[in-house]
Model the fold of this input.
Amino acid sequence: MRQVPLLFLNVIIIATCGLIYELLAATLSSYVLGDSVTQFSIVIGIYLSAMGVGSWLSGFLDKDLAKRFVEVELGVALLGGFSAPLLFLTFANVSYFGIVLYGTVFAIGILVGLEIPLLMRILKDELDFKNLVARVLALDYVGALVGSLLFPIFLVPRLGLNRTSLFFGLLNAGVGIWGTWLLESRIKNRDLLILRIKGFVIVVLLIIGLIKAESLTSLAEDALFVDNIIYAKSSSYQRIVVTKGNIGYGLFLNGNLQFNSFDEYRYHEALVHPAFAAFGRDAQRILVLGGGDGLAVREILKYPTIENVTLVDLDPEMTNVSRTVPALGELNRHSLDDPRVQIINRDAFVWLDESKDERFDIAIVDFPDPNNFALGKLYTTRFYQMLKSKLRPDSAVVIQTTSPLMARQSFWCIVKTLETAGFIVRPYNTAVPSFGIWGFALAKLEPFAVPAKPASNIELRFLNETTMASMFEFSSDTNRPTGEIEVNRLDNQALVRYYETEWRKFE
Done:
């Protein structure tokens, strides 16, 4: 009955590793391709179909099943363990990354698909068929649950994607080596030594990979980013990278540019000051959703009447980055250290639903673009209805709404969603060299006129009476489409579909 411990331990590891590699590949595809919904579906489909191919191929293996099982286990350890570093490096250096991504996912799927059929055939003499199937499948599903919980909650936030991949490779290698002892009676003597040597070589390689994981990540990112990387950290929610180049500092989240210090003032002045002009009187209490870099708060604190700014941003690493990188602290004028600023690290959707009954004069909504359903929920009618509960009747709201030129339907979908939620909306746009033509939506709960000019006593580098008026004009290729635009609802996120379709053309 030496095989029974192998059943209990290895099936859990098989299932956990299988799911981990599945989610790992899906996460990598969304990180590097920026198209999470489509890529997630494609990766999962390829992975599951490859498992089926692996199960089918297991039927052609008739001899030396124990040896084949150990070889498959070591194969999963090697390929699965190095999958994340491989994908990061190839994405940064080759033009045919899609082939490498899908090929890696398919190969891992085949190996994982081979494991359980081989294990069941090896153990068929130890357990009757009913108990064998029941135990294997039960532990398989338990392992899937363990993997799905460990991956986002514990492993990636603490180890990062590269180390998570290498760590599970080590687990598989350990099981493969242990299997040479558990299955010693079923493996020919001449093969045992070779399998153990292979196993220990793979373990050494994976340990080296773990030690050099940061170097591997830096190597990939050095090729991915044109400018020098001066700060990089993986938080529980995203990869944060700060670069320094000839024209300034850049902040990237999961590889996507958030701002460049060269021209960020154009974006943040356009984001903040029209809302103050539309409010029409001295604002005191301001709500900022997103904007953890502190640049929008910098613009808000230029108004002397401000008494309190509540900043709600999910990621504490994001709200700390300007303290960690002195250049960013200087750029936002240390706005997040101002005693009037309260930082709340919560999901804005949850915070709006649970926070106490308080009202704000102005709300600035500065979320990343809606490239997945987790972000898309922050642009739904449900979210905007919850936001209304934090506003006074004359409060003003401004929302960044992606590019009306490159993502025209996405832009107007956000506008229509706001209107459906009960807002009067005045959309506008401006040119930000780092992004191109960029859009915003100014909204109130009561009719209002387009603001004519920004406040005269505020220090501004970009906005003036002329530029503010021009922002509310749209060209023929950016104005509201004549066709039907769907509303973005929580149970049917049309915005994410629009966004993926439109931005995919520019990849």
In short: Residues 16 and 120 are 17 Å apart (CA to CA). The radius of gyration is 27 Å. The mean pLDDT is 86.
